[in-house]
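Recall the central idea of this unit: under ordinary conditions, the amino acid sequence of a chain determines the structure it adopts. In this exercise we apply that idea directly, starting from the sequence alone.
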Amino acid sequence: MIGMAFGLGFILGPASAGQKARAGWRAGICASNFVLAFFILEGKPATRSERAASRPKLAQWRHTLAVPKLGLLIITVLLAT
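Accordingly, the structure predicted from this sequence is:
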């Protein structure tokens, strides 16, 4: 019985959340997040990867948010959630 309720939650949960968000302002933020990600992010990853520099957590956040495209997307996600 618990497994069935768990499965129905996976099926009905996103549908009911979508219906609730359709009329609200959160849907607009989510849609803008999708559009920004679609047009701003590059399609292919770099062919050569480099090891990230080791930094303290606060310095790493400052460094990450200083990248204009990435900072905008992170702030949009934080506002959407």
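The longest helix spans residues 2-22.
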